[in-house]
Amino acid sequence: MKIFADTADVNEIRRLASMGLVDGVTTNPSLVAKTGREYADVVKEICGIVDGPISAEVISTDAKGMIEEGLRLAAIHPNIVVKTPMGPDGLIACRELANRGHRVNMTLVFSAGQALLTAKAGAYLVSPFVGRLDDISEDGMALIADIVSIYRNYGYKTEVLVASVRHPMHIVEAAKLGADCVTCPAKTIEQLMHHPLTDRGLAAFLKDWENRKR
Ligand code: G3P
Fold first, then answer.
1. Mean pLDDT of the chain
2. Which of 164, 182, 187 to mutate to test the pocket of ligand 1 (most atoms within 8 A of CB)?
C-alpha cells in the first residue's frame, strides 16, 4: 500500500521522506493556508522533495474554472495530480482533464455511489474521507470496503486513496481491505512507528549491555 503525506508542511515531508515513507503527497486549500505561502510555491517545493504523485486542489467552483486552474497546476510539474471536488462540475472537469492526459484526484467523496461516478469520469485517484464519516457516526472504513469491492467487480483503474485519516488503525484497516493508498498527517504516520514493547525491549537490551560481565 502506498503511503502519502497529507500535509503542506515541507519540513514534515522532508523528515518522512528521509525514512523512505512518502510515496506521494496530498495538499488541500486548508493545509496550504496554514503555511501562509502561495499554493504554487508550496507545491513546486514539494515536487522537489518527493518523486511521486503530488495532489494540488483547484479553488474554482465551476467546471470551466476548474479545468483552467487544473491545467495551470498540472503545468507546474509532471507529478502533479489535479484535485477536483465531487459534484457535477468536478466530474466534468475530471473527465476533461483526463481526456487531455492529466491525472485527477476526486476529493470530498463520502459514498460508494460518488466513488462509482468518480471511476467512470476517469479519475486516477478517489479520495473517500473516512475520518469525517466517523465524526458523524457513520462507518468510514465500511465505505472503503464497498469501494474496493465495486472497483474490483468492474476492473476500474481508479486507485482508492483513503483520506481524512485520524489514527493508526485507519491505516492498518485500509491495508487489510486492500486500498491502494492512504494519505495521512505526519503525526499519524509517526504514531504508527511506536509500540510500548519496543521501548521496553530496547531499554532492557541497553540495561543488560551496561551490566554485562567485564
Ligand atoms: O486528505 C483530506 C484530508 O486532508 C482531510 O482530513 O482531517 O480535515 O478530515 P480532515
1. 97
2. 164
